[in-house]
Specification:
Structural class: alpha/beta
CATH class: Alpha Beta
Number of helices: 6
CATH architecture: 3-Layer(aba) Sandwich
Radius of gyration: 18 Å
Largest sheet: 4 strands, parallel
Shape: elongated
CATH superfamily: Phosphotransferase system, mannose-type IIA component
CATH topology: Rossmann fold
């Protein structure tokens, strides 16, 4: 039993994320891409089910989508109802992808919740953080 990850997005976002992941961790053979192109008439839920059916039946599948409520996410929700071994997580970012990719064993829900929370917390307005730090440093100097 191992984890399989499907990155599902509009356009090339998922493929780009997989390429970046490969630069950082090397082997990404358990990370797969499903992309919806502008003129794509193909049903991505059917492609996704075919991909999942090619995995070992004992594998846990994490589908990470680009955005909650999007057509890609909605298609993956339909996959969720057809395959019990699937988790769908909307709003992927790179820290989320990296943490799940580094886990070879299925994640307990509590750990998955932690990873999602950490991924959200990693989204920061750096300019605002620097301004706040500068203000704190200035106050400390008084």
């Amino acid at each position: 039993m191992m984890n399989q990850i499907i990155l599902a997005s509009h356009g090339g976002l998922a493929a780009g994320a997989r390429d970046t992941l490969e630069m950082i961790i090397g082997d990404v053979s358990r990370v797969h891409v499903i992309s919806l192109k502008r003129d794509d008439k193909d049903q991505i839920d059917e492609r996704t089910i075919a991909l999942i059916d090619s995995f070992d039946a004992s594998d846990k599948v994490y589908i990470l989508t680009d955005m909650m409520g999007s057509s890609v996410n909605n298609s993956m929700v339909s996959v969720l109802s057809k395959r019990a071994s699937v988790s769908v997580i909307a709003g992927m970012n790179f820290p989320l992808i990296l943490e799940i990719a580094l886990s070879s064993d299925p994640l307990p829900q509590s750990r998955l919740d932690e990873i999602i929370a950490q991924s959200r917390a990693g989204i920061q307005d750096v300019a605002a953080l620097l301004a706040q730090k500068a203000q704190e440093d200035e106050e400390d100097d008084l």
